[in-house]
User: Fold this.
Amino acid sequence: MVSKNKIEMEKPVVELDGDEMTRVMWKWVKDELLLPYIDLKTEYYDLHVKHRDETNDQVTIQAAEAIKRWGVGIKCATITPNAERVKEYNLKKEWPSPNATIRKILDGTLFRAPIILNNIVPAVRFWKKPIVVARHAFGDIYDGVGMRFDGPGEAEIIFRYDDSREIRSKLPKIKGAGVLQTIYNIDSSIQSFARASMKYALMNKLDLWFGAKDTISKVYDARFKEIFNSVYENEFKEEFEKNGISYNYYLIDDAVARVVRSEGGFLWACKNYDGDVFSDFVSTAFVGTLALMTSELFSPEGYYLSEAAHGTVQRHYYRYIKGEKVSTNPTALIFAWTRGLKRRGEMDSNDDLIKFSENLERAVKITIENDLIMTQDVARVSDTKNPVIVDTQEFIKAVKKNLEKLIK
Ligand code: NAP
Ligand code: MG
Assistant:
């Protein structure tokens, strides 16, 4: 393709490069599937663990700030260093998870959705359409405190306002040794979560479900329910009705039962812990491999970040650097790019970019569903009798062939 036929971009996307096998695939995807067709404008931030270390993790913060400037970020998977990684890469310290840092700066809600293929039958046989899980990424047990005690006693929560007023609440008499935990959340964060979920539901024309346990948690979960209701009534009801979608509140256990009985096709907003658990449950039951999961972050201000749901695929990388061919699946990485570019296209009214993103996604699906060409992880969970199992680069080549056919 000659360069004058390339799709133009008005504004850049923020590109966050990463680590290990995903970093290797990142370059292959760009070189083969993007750069020949798009005059790709990116503001590049290198989140390689060594570069984060050299910049005292400032590069992660700068990347998040850049997303605020340009609206759209596309992220490769990154190592969250633990003690082993500090040794392996000779790091100054265990830097925090880049995702957590970015999420804190953007105050976003995470949306995870399976990439559905007709040759992978979900473990739950009723599921036909995607179930997107939205996870509230702030507070509850992720920001709580706990204690152990070794005999009977009593406990009381005291909240002291900045102006020194106090409110108190006593637990029932505690009869023996045990554990105790206190958690919290804040109204503004719950509101952001409700808004982000409702915006996403509208954008994708999906019904919205929200589950909590307000019958038991009469103050805490009841507040979530109340805030969701009021954000819906005051800001979204009309738009939802116009678009023929609905908002439904269920008790969380009822919600789980309904999810399993459903045919899918809705957004399930989950409190922090529920989202942690049920996003893994839904993805595994739906497609059986993390490499077929997209992950998108929306902030209340409209900032957006897309990435693959999986990590850096460390074990494959070690084999790759030894010179072995690896069959690592680049699908979720490709979709991180298509979703981010599509979002860029929507923000800039760039129809060519939107169309290209849709074609690239279609090319991936045709490769797996029609050509039966797939990576090892997909072959393992698919019903295809005689799949053509290929390595990563062969897979990308096959996708490219289909992409060229689609865009002629
Ligand atoms: P992982 O990279 O997601 O890989 C776990 C296993 O899942 C792999 O060993 C592989 O199984 C399979 N897998 C994941 N992605 C695959 C793909 N694209 N194609 C084929 N198989 C795939 O998780 P991890 O090994 O626990 O973590 C590795 C590093 O990633 C860690 O340093 C962690 O901090 C980081 N991480 C980053 C993010 C992020 O940036 N969002 C998220 C999670 C983890 P087989 O080996 O059995 O083939
Ligand atoms: Mg989890």
About this structure: The mean pLDDT is 95. The pocket of NAP (ligand 1) is lined by residues 77-80, 99, 290-291, 307, 310-315, 328-329, 377 (CB under 6 Å). The chain is about 45% helix and 20% strand.
